[in-house]
Amino acid sequence: MIAALLLLAAAALIGWLLWRSWIRPLLDLRDLIRALADDEANTPIVRSSLRPFTQISADLGRIADRQRRQRRQLADEGFSLRAILGSMIEGVMIVDPSQRIRLANDALYAMFDLTRSPINRGVREVFPHPELASAIERSLREVRTVILEMRDEPRIGDTRVERHFRIHLSPLAPVGGSTPAGVLGVFNDVTEVRTLESVRREFVANVSHEFRTPLAIIKGYVETLLDGALDDRAMAVRSLEVIQKHGDRLNLLIDDLLTVSRMEHRAPDMKYCLVSLPQILDRVLEQLDSTIRARQASVELALDVEHIEVDPPRIEQVFFNLLANALKYGDAGVQLRISARQRGEEIEIAFADDGPGIPYQDQPHIFERFYRVHKDRSRDAGGTGLGLSIVKHVVMAHGGHVSVRSTPGAGATFKIALPARHRSG
Ligand code: ADP
Questions:
Q1: Which of 30, 255, 298, 366 lies at a C-alpha separation of 20 to 30 Å from 70?
Q2: How far is the CA of 359 from the centre of ligand 1 (A)?
Q3: Ligand 1 nearest-atom number relative to CA 387
Q4: Distance (Å, whole) CA 217 – CA 379
Q5: From ligand 1's centre to the CA of 407, what distance in Å?
Q6: Average pLDDT, stretch 309-329?
Q7: How close is the Cα of 74 to the center of ligand 1, in Å?
């Protein structure tokens, strides 16, 4: 009985020793390796004092440590990458070799108004621009950067707007093998640059056209004079008068062009002072006196404002251009009415005439440079096509705005609104 008890105690002791020195550390190791595999290991605990176990435990501790550092580094890098991509104004996209989109930043979503995530979708499916997929394919095949200019025409409301993108497609460094791991696309929105370029091209074409006509006329009359008209006094005088008229027109054109360019390209140095509105209008009407009489025009004033704070010579030019137009396009006996009143913080000055008016479809464009509705009349009267553009820019430089209202056939009213006071004089 005692022997059996002793045997049992010995077996229990051996079992306990086995548990303590081998089984428990092995179970600890199993848990620890599982935790490492699951990326969850913290400080490893292998409960054993046997050297092989303490060594394995120390090694696993180092592995867990390294894993922790790498995890932190990855998290930091991920954070930095997200911060960089999120703050870029360029659209960024990474595409894998099968042309699936792997990454896209916020700017790319905004540029193409992507409402659905493009991630894991094909380039051709997301972008209806076959040239983009072809350029990516070329970058992958030739392992070089490809630059692409792409035009997009998204619909905004009822209208289509034109957008231009310049896209750098660079192959990503190959991982093993020689084919790139994908392509990095960086999208720049160059719409503004392209628009400016086309505006400049159009402007140069318009200016050349405006110069060509008077120059051709002057050249024609000079040739006529040289061909013998000089001896015919009446003919010579007529020719010189035409030459003078077109010389004046060229001068006017240059003056207007310089004014437009000064008002458009630099913040014009405005010199504000408080002046009498009736006095300024009187001066302008005096300059136009002979035209007013020649057109048998009548001018009515209804001014509820005495003083305005403006850059006087510039605002004089605005009044002159508006009144000259009313006289130019109105028939004989045209009636003009100039009224002014204060509306809140603004002073509104209206120039109304009972001339031919402006067709509705032209009204949104008449403040554009060289836009003419009554082309022959404008040219015959020496118009440069820049008068209203100058009006718009001068008024805008004053911090105001200009508008037109017209019922075709029943006159036009141009309204300018100017701030009643300017903070810096
Ligand atoms: P322009 O030198 O040709 O007069 P503007 O820029 O001053 O150039 O005017 C642009 C066009 O707007 C003119 O060619 C003319 O067709 C139209 N327009 C301007 N003012 C009037 C007006 N009061 N009545 C009718 N049409 C006008």
A1: 30
A2: 11
A3: 7
A4: 13
A5: 15
A6: 95
A7: 66
Whose CA is closest to 321, among 276, 384, 265? 384
pLDDT in the model for residue 176: 64
Q: How far apart are the first and last CA of the chain?
A: 119
**Confidence at 304, pLDDT banded by 50, 70, 90:** very high
By most ligand atoms within 8 Å of CB, the mutation choice from 329, 334, 391, 404 for ligand 1 is 329
Cα of 421 vs centre of ligand 1, distance in Å, is: 30
Amino acid type, 158? D
Give the span between the Cα atoms of 44 and 35, in whole angstroms: 9
Place of tokens 């009446």: 234
Atom of ligand 1 nearest to the CA of 355: 24
Outline where DSSP puts E strands in 41-114.
91-95, 101-104
How many other C-beta atoms are found inside a 10 Å radius of the C-beta of residue 381?
A: 14
User: pLDDT tens across 390-409, in order?
Assistant: 999 999 999 999 999 999 99
Cβ < 6 A, ligand 1 pocket: 321, 325-326, 329, 353, 355-356, 358, 366, 371-374, 378, 383-389, 412
DSSP structural state of residue 330: S
pLDDT in tens, 197-221: 988 898 899 899 889 989 999 999 9
Residue 424 pLDDT greater than 70, yes or no: no
Rounded to a whole number of angstroms, the CA Rg of the chain reads 41
Cβ(170)–Cβ(152) under 8 Å? no
pLDDT band at 288 (very low <50, low <70, confident <90, very high): very high
Q: For residue range 224-250, list pLDDT tens digits in order.
A: 999 988 889 999 999 999 999 999 999
CA separation for the pair 20, 13 (Å, rounded): 10
